[in-house]
Amino acid sequence: MTGDLALDSAQQAEQRMRRLRSEHGEHLVLDLSGLRYLDSVGLSLLMRFYLAAEGRGGSAVLAGPLQEAVRRVLQITHVDERLTIHPTLDDALAQSLPPGADLRNG
């Protein structure tokens, strides 16, 4: 994800995340390294997809490095205590996905 994940962009982001989930299954790695801004609507979207994946026996983790503004929102809301956040996309892919899975093209 790049740019902002906020009220004005959440619908488009949600559609993309749904498409990725339908194409790749319930193990999601969300690359937030290009995300500059995250508001409550974007935060809610991240949590909904995390809970949906978890509810279907999957997982959803975040990959950075995170911009300071994004990291701060996750810390203030304690979402960083609930979601797994990896320092890089490579780390997230290596540690979070089932063997043989690769979502780099997603």
Automatic annotation (TrEMBL):
<dbReference type="Pfam" id="PF01740">
    <property type="entry name" value="STAS"/>
</dbReference>
<dbReference type="InterPro" id="IPR036513">
    <property type="entry name" value="STAS_dom_sf"/>
</dbReference>
<dbReference type="InterPro" id="IPR002645">
    <property type="entry name" value="STAS_dom"/>
</dbReference>
<feature type="domain" description="STAS">
    <location>
        <begin position="1"/>
        <end position="96"/>
    </location>
</feature>
<protein>
    <submittedName>
        <fullName>Anti-anti-sigma factor</fullName>
    </submittedName>
</protein>
<dbReference type="GO" id="GO:0043856">
    <property type="term" value="F:anti-sigma factor antagonist activity"/>
</dbReference>
